[in-house]
């Protein structure tokens, strides 16, 4: 049985590389070199509260013990409940020149940073999902408002078209008034020619012309009112149209934001997977 690290070329080389490996691996790391029964050397780390020390016997079931007896590389993850931080261990069996297992080298690396990355990416992913859900609800509301605005716009356009239809009605009434006025004028002329016999008819003719005049004035008032209505309808239609355009632009912007958030969410999931596999 090997009692000194220098007795095995691989163990000796690994021992000399430990200072450089601590720099390369960066994370908090523990290094161990063992023979088949006990620890020949243990390089602890202050951030990993393991109580092992050089000279301790190998514990049955440990990665180092299994690597020697199962004659294979043993990878294991120790949950943070054991040492306060999650740890990943790897134990590699070491053979002599005849191929006999004489011990193993072991590395235990803290997964605290990876766990933090995992938690951050998980929280980020959950937050992004909530934001995406909220934006989807807002987008649905905007789209619904846009549909309502579009319906209002269509109704306003229909109302505007109907008010234009009154132009022909007013024109017809104006023609009737003109014809009535002409009729009253002709009646007055005929009454004048008839002398005393046409005096009663003359009164009727005057009333007809008064009616024609009153109708003309009413038509002008109605025409002015309708023009004001048309003007108001046109203004409201234009405003509703602008609102509808704004709704469409906002909906498009929200779609772009949702797409960007989904992309970030995918990145967060990738980070989460990397943290799990690391």
Automatic annotation (TrEMBL):
GO terms under biological process: signal transduction
Presence of the UniProt keyword Lyase in the record: no
SUPFAM superfamilies per the UniProt record, alphabetical: Methyl-accepting chemotaxis protein (MCP) signaling domain, Sensory domain-like
Any one annotated GO CC term: membrane
Record flagged with keyword Ligase: no
InterPro entries membership: MCPsignal_dom, Sensor-like_sf
Keywords (A to Z) from UniProt: Transducer
Residue span, Methyl-accepting transducer domain: 106-278
Pfam families: MCPsignal
The name this protein goes by in its record: Putative sensory transducer protein YfmS
Taxonomic placement: Bacteria, Bacillati, Bacillota, Clostridia, Eubacteriales
